[in-house]
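Example record used in the benchmark description.
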Amino acid sequence: MSRYRGPRCKKIRRLGALPGLTKKSPKAVRDDLRNPSRSGKKSQYRIRLEEKQKLRFHYGLTERQLLKYVRIAGKAKGSTGQVLLQLLEMRLDNILFRLGMASTIPAARQLVNHRHILVNGRIVDIPSYRCKPRDLITAKDEQKSRTLIHNSLNSPPHEHEKVPYFLTLQPLQYKGLVNQIIDSKWVGLKINEFLVVEYYSRQT
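Model output (structure tokens):
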């Protein structure tokens, strides 16, 4: 299944806030209020499915990519759900978004794909690059690269855009530093990761 490129507010109305997907605000009226047939008690399967979809659309992943991360997390030490969130949060595109250097994760992915971003002084054009503690993330020393990031840093702030403690932003230098691996409490999405793991465990 390919990466989602359809209407973004439609997903927010169905799943709730997805700050990584878009900064736009959905209409106040939810789908289930406009369509009574969709209201009522949700099945356990639907609850798990919607939590999985939140994770997928927020981080901009394909189904195959998310399944791969779940399998990697399952082989690591510790809670599979928490390791999964750490893997996703440490992606380069997400780090750029959490620093405020990109307005959304799709915008961050475009910055990386177009070679505007350096990690430790070297261009990285892979959005899924896994950042590590002490990684220094900077804009390429070109006017276009810095203008794109400057526009994002100077856009109206949102509550979710507060830079978490595990990152340090130096906006005047267009730099960001990864201080440590993220604590699950600082994940930029309201999610029950255990339901996501349970969803995949029941699919295999």
